[in-house]
Amino acid sequence: MIQLSSIEKVYRTDSIETLALTGVNLDVDRGEFLSVMGPSGSGKSTLLNIIGLLDSPTSGNIVLAGEKVASYHDRKLAHIRNQKIGFVFQSYHLVNDLSVVDNVEIPLIYRSMSGKERRQRALAALEKVGLSARTKHFPGQLSGGQRQRVAIARAIVGEPEIILADEPTGNLDSVMGQEILAILKSLVKDMGTTIVMVTHDEPIALETDRIVRLFDGSQVN
Predict the structure, then answer these.
(1) Is 64 exposed, middle or buried (0-12, 13-18, 19+ CB in 10 A)?
(2) Helix, strand, coil share (%) of the chain residues, nearest 5
(3) Rounded alpha-carbon distances, angstroms, from residue 26 to 107, 161, 169, 211, 219
(4) N or C: which end of the chain has fewer CB within 10 A?
């Protein structure tokens, strides 16, 4: 599902050059749940942004679901992000003045479908994460774990093949963290979703299929 070959990412300014990733080669199978671990500054979020087509590598090749995307223009990349990739972030990134169901509908606004279909799919996604009773609430009325469930519902509402999760349990206690992990694992089992998750939590990572470790921008395993 995901193939990265000889990925390098260099950030340059007038006075400094920072090597964020170097020599990264990674294959992720369809339906695999992969964890990415490493200390702060090791390149984890950069790697996730490159897989998610939010950033481009300085060199190397990216293949997603059989498509070599390195040469694609911005509009095509945006289309792939909307159709094939769901994002879950540590800080949720919900819109506070929109209801839960309206937040979940956001990725579908950019697709050709009726408002009725958008609402039906958003409600179905919220049911999958156990929030059917909270559809009319606002993010500020929810706990951290509930907000992360909304973020997961938003990520899966478009039925993406890939979910990228950046520290999805980082702001949660251990009990809520396990609940979020269980939801992600169910997506792999029931829908065949491919998940790449950045985490600092070793016990959480050990429950996924595989761990890739980064240090100073390089793979160390």
Answers:
(1) buried
(2) 40, 25, 35
(3) 28, 17, 24, 11, 9
(4) C
Tally of residues, the chain: 221
**Which pairs from 8-17 meet CB under 8 Å and 24+ separation?**
8/57, 8/58, 8/59, 8/60, 9/43, 9/46, 9/50, 9/55, 9/57, 9/58, 9/217, 10/58
For residue range 6-36, list pLDDT tens digits in order.
999 999 888 889 899 999 999 999 999 999 9
Residue 44 has pLDDT above 90, yes or no: yes
Select from 41, 71, 36, 75 the least CA-distant residue to 57: 71
**Any residues with CB less than 8 A from the CB of 65 and at least 6 apart, and which?**
1, 84, 161, 162
How confident is the model over 97-153, as pLDDT tens digits?
999 999 999 999 988 889 999 999 999 999 999 999 999 999 999 999 999 999 999
Note the pLDDT of residue 74.
87
Q: Please calculate the CA angle 62-30-35 and round it to the nearest 5 degrees.
A: 75
Domain 2-219, CATH among 3.50.50.60, 3.40.640.10, 3.40.50.300, 3.30.450.20: 3.40.50.300
Q: What is the average pLDDT score of the chain?
A: 92
Kindly report the pTM of this predicted structure: 0.91
Kindly list the distances between the CA atom of residue 191 and the CA atoms of 106, 128, 163, 164, 203, in Å, as whole numbers in the listed order: 21, 11, 12, 15, 24
